[in-house]
Amino acid sequence: MIHHALNEGLLLLRQRAGVSAILVLALAVPIALAGVGLAINRWLDPVAEFSGRESSVAVLLHPQLDDDARRNWVAAQSEAHPEWTITEVSPEELVRRLQQWFPYLEDLVGTGDASMPPLIEIATADVGSLAVLESQPEVVAVGPQSSIQQLLGEVARRLSVAVAVLSAVLLAAAVLLAVVWIHLELYRHADELTIMRLVGATEGTIRGPFVVVIGIVGFVAGVVAVVGALATVRALSRMVTVLGLPEVVVTPGILVIQVSAAVILPVAAAAITLSRHAAEEFES
């Protein structure tokens, strides 16, 4: 039975080479895209942490605050917001940062510590909670409340959702194409299948060639998807390494998932379609 299924399946492939090639590409494109998306998400995970990491926001206090007033203000904020981690930046450290960020201001910021306003850094996972400080008279300005980690995390989440949705839509279309193809082949060979059932052929013998065809098409599509994902990720790695970022890597697990999905999904769709067709034949 296996030998018969292989022979008939290969014959069917040769007869429908054009449609089989289209089906291979239709399966390979979404699976390759999904693999690239998984690799990108894995690459972004340690870079952006996606969400939940504490962000540090700079808060500039009024320059007329003396040391006692500043310490009282910090103590009051620590008591009111125990989830905040408040750190005072010394005047010397502030001068060093300004000289590093703006070298052309070195003469101005190097005139003395008394000219430097107090700077506070607050670390928190909820940077939106710092908005309450903007209305306090002791506060001159609150730094940007959208950290680079949160921005990268938001981009990573949106990219992940977009890739997942696009891959799911394309993969569903490819599976539907496989189902339609099987239906057309069943109707094309309807007379042969009827004769085989009349002479006592088992359902396994009848379904075998179609399952073999879809399995071969799925495996080839998985290989094409793996090659496409590797080539795409290699091109992305060349671009990000130029920027000094770590390269994007496709793990062996992603490759195994790609090949497995390319084989299992169309074979499962084919098995369901063939079972329904057999049930309809028996009822008629």
Could you outline the blueprint of secondary structure elements for this entry?
Blueprint: H1 2-15, H2 17-48, E1 55-61, H3 67-80, E2 85-89, H4 91-101, H5 106-109, E3 119-124, E4 139-142, H6 148-188, H7 190-198, H8 203-242, H9 252-283
Antiparallel strand pairs: 1-3, 1-4, 2-3
Helix pairs in contact: 1-8, 2-6, 2-8, 2-9, 6-9, 8-9
Molecular structure report:
69% of the residues lie in helices and 8% in strands. It has helices at residues 2-15, 17-48, 67-80, 91-101, 106-109, 148-188, 190-198, 203-242, 252-283, and strands at 55-61, 85-89, 119-124, 139-142. Helix 6 (148-188) packs parallel to helix 9 (252-283). The chain is elongated, with a radius of gyration of 32 Å. The two termini are 26 Å apart. The mean pLDDT is 76.
Strand and helix order: HHEHEHHEEHHHH
| Strand order of the biggest β-sheet | 2-3-1-4
Strand content: 5-15%
Task: Compute the number of strand runs.
Answer: 4
Structure annotation, total helices: 9
Give the % helix. 55-70%
Q: What is the 3D shape?
A: elongated
